[in-house]
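We store sequence with structure; for instance:
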Amino acid sequence: MTAAGASDGWTGPMVGGHLFGGTIMDSHPQYSVCNGYGRAHDIPNLVLADSGLFPGGSGTSPTFAIYAIAERSSAPMLAHWNDYAGPGARH
């Protein structure tokens, strides 16, 4: 991460499953990482669609919920592709 220019780094334990939480969804960048569709506030062409968006863990595998989140996030991306792709992309 340092070689990529990161000023702060984080490492977690090696686990055999999905990590939950950490990428909070909200419309306000001050309180969250991404909007309600998983689009990052600070990196316009980054869309998050994994269990990091969940507020906490569940008692079952999150695979189908992750698929649903990915599908939901893809709709606005496809509808507004020029806002996501290419130089100068903004949200």
User: Anything to note?
Assistant: The two ends are 25 Å apart (CA to CA). Residues 33 and 42 are 8 Å apart (CA to CA).
